[in-house]
Amino acid sequence: MLLSGALPSTTPCGNSIIYPIAMDILNIQDKKSIVFMLYCDESEIAYIVKPRSRNGHRSGLDYVKSGDPLTISQAYEDLPWPEHIHKDKNGYIVYKVAPSDEERDHYLKQRS
């Protein structure tokens, strides 16, 4: 199923999921250091993800942490940055914005 405004990604569990293209736009064009959650229905695994380093074009996602949905949801909730909501015709996604890529990556690495 193709959705307008969505991008595919292959999860570490080997399945394909989609996420809003707006997450890449926030990362590449707006230079926001974001992190968000994704869930794979087939494997029932949740992920905390971040866009790969900005180089002017789409480069995919880094899957930072995986686990059951409750554990990942709590880990996401514990992230110290402000939460935002992106809404479009396909639904909505919540994400957090860190002050910088360096701070985000350092924090996530300490808790992996």
Topology:
Blueprint: E1 6-10, E2 16-20, H1 21-28, E3 33-40, E4 45-51, E5 61-67, H2 69-78, E6 83-88, E7 91-98, H3 101-110
Antiparallel strand pairs: 1-2, 3-4, 3-7, 4-5, 6-7
What would your notes on this structure say?
By secondary structure, this protein is an alpha+beta fold. The chain has one domain. Helix content is 25%, strand content 41%. It has helices at residues 21-28, 69-78, 101-110; strands at 6-10, 16-20, 33-40, 45-51, 61-67, 83-88, 91-98. The strands form two sheets. The protein has a five-stranded antiparallel sheet with strand order 5-4-3-7-6. Strands 1-2 form a two-stranded antiparallel sheet. Strand 3 (33-40) and strand 4 (45-51) form a beta hairpin. The relative contact order is 0.21. The mean pLDDT is 89.
pLDDT averaged over residues: 89
- List low-pLDDT spans: none
Distance between the termini: 33 Å
Reading side by side through the largest sheet, how are the strands ordered? 5-4-3-7-6
The ordered H/E elements are EEHEEEHEEH
Helix content: 25-40%
Largest sheet: 5 strands, antiparallel
CA-atom Rg in angstroms? 13 Å
How many H/I helices? 3
Return the domain count.
Answer: 1
> What class do helices, strands and sheet pairing give?
alpha+beta
Q: What portion of the residues fall into strands of 2 or more residues?
A: 35-45%
Number of strands: 7
- The dominant shape is globular
